[in-house]
Design goal:
Strand 3 and strand 4 form a beta hairpin. 5% of the residues lie in helices and 41% in strands. The strands form 3 sheets. It has a 6-stranded antiparallel sheet, with no helix packed on it. The chain is globular and about 55 Å long. It is built from 2 helices and 13 strands.
Length: 187
């Protein structure tokens, strides 16, 4: 198989490294192949692709969908980002635990985040282009969020004063979110 897989401390969250074929012109990689990814345990159907462009210091997150939960396959295609997944599934043995990793156009890493996790990233390069596949459509009225700097999450963001949207700067801490706005853990 042409994909290296690294498990993380959060069950279901995996880091993937598709093989890059490089030559003097640049490189080629297969960023998604349904059969190969299913063999790795990524069995969701992706229905929406998103692309974001951000400048240095921008932090987006921590976002999740309440009822229309999304699994995501994430990749930074240009630049560098620090990417974070947070387990917010009520009853999960890893509830409120997070995993962070640098994704970049150069390292070619991807991260798969299953349903029931919040997600965010901050840009470490001058600019970044960030691509992600989602297993459900985005519903603006179903959006949830957690304050990026919630001390209980102990996220080691590599930026001290990120550039935030007004919405991202106003989210509540995880312990302030009603249980009805968090996903349940399904064993």
């Amino acid at each position: 198989m042409t994909i290296e897989v690294q498990t993380t401390a959060l069950p279901g969250v995996v880091v993937l490294k598709p093989k890059q074929y490089r030559d003097p012109r640049g490189y080629f990689l297969e960023s998604y192949h349904q059969i190969k990814y299913r063999e790795l345990g990524i069995n969701c159907e992706f229905v929406q692709d998103n692309l974001s462009f951000s400048l240095f210091g921008v932090l987006r997150g921590l976002h999740y969908q309440i009822r229309h939960q999304q699994a995501k396959l994430i990749q930074c295609v240009k630049g560098r980002v620090f990417d974070v997944a947070v387990d917010i599934r009520l009853g999960s043995p890893t509830f409120a635990k997070c995993f962070g990793i640098e994704l970049s156009g150069k390292n070619g890493l991807q991260m798969f985040i299953p349903k029931g996790f919040a997600h965010g990233f901050c840009v470490l390069s001058e600019e970044a282009i960030f691509h992600y596949k989602c297993s459900d459509f985005y519903h603006p009225d179903d959006e949830g969020g957690i304050l990026w700097s919630d001390p209980a999450l102990e996220i080691q963001w590599p930026l001290e004063n990120p550039i935030l949207s007004e919405k991202d700067g106003c989210y509540r801490r995880l312990n302030q979110i009603p249980e009805t706005e968090l996903p349940e853990y399904n064993k």
